[in-house]
Amino acid sequence: MADHKELTFSLETDFIELIKLLKLVRIASSGAEAKMFVGEGMVCRNKEIETRKRAKLIKGDIIEVEGIRVTII
User: Fold this and answer.
1) What is the enclosing helix (H) or strand (E) of 35?
2) Which residues span the domain enclosing 49?
């Protein structure tokens, strides 16, 4: 069975950029790694591949990458 991790991220502003979220929740160890995940089509937003590195994520969005699901609340 594949490992799957569920996280939540409490949004305190109107939005957060995708690459910033990946760094804050420690999916990516650096901005370069976050950009690589997005650039290679490894990130899904609400079950669709997200290719915009600076996509503005809002409450209710679900991000999935590398077996990790982050729900923005």
Assistant:
1) helix 31-39
2) 5-72
pLDDT tens figures, 12-45: 999 999 999 999 999 999 999 999 999 999 999 9
Rg of the chain over all Cα atoms, to the nearest angstrom: 11
Taking a C-beta distance cutoff of 8 angstroms, is the pair 18, 57 a contact? yes
Query: 67, 7 in Cβ contact below 8 A?
Result: no
The pair phi, psi for residue 22, each rounded to 5°, is -60, -35
Q: What is the CATH number of the domain that holds 68?
A: 3.10.290.10
Give the separation between CA 72 and CA 68, rounded to whole angstroms.
Answer: 13
Number of domains in the chain: 1
